[in-house]
Design goal:
The protein is mainly α. It contains four helices and no strands. The longest helix has 13 residues.
């Protein structure tokens, strides 16, 4: 894993710092689990953390409206 540059940051902060917030929002809106998962792994989520997060967000569309 990288130099832990995202340690202690929220999901939104990590995605914003990586310039991936819009791409993540788009992936959720399109229900593209694979793309969303890859974006979270890119910002130093473990595979399990990313998978759990994406699945939770996709189960409740209201929870990710702030990403759009």
């Amino acid at each position: 894993m990288g130099d832990k540059k995202y340690m202690g940051m929220s999901l939104t902060d990590r995605l914003t710092k990586a310039g991936a917030l819009d791409a993540f929002s788009k992936a959720l809106l399109e229900k593209n689990e694979t793309a969303a998962l890859a974006l979270l792994i890119n910002v130093e989520f473990t595979h399990d953390q990313a998978s759990d997060t994406v699945k939770s967000l996709l189960l409740d569309p209201n929870s990710y409206r702030n990403f759009s």
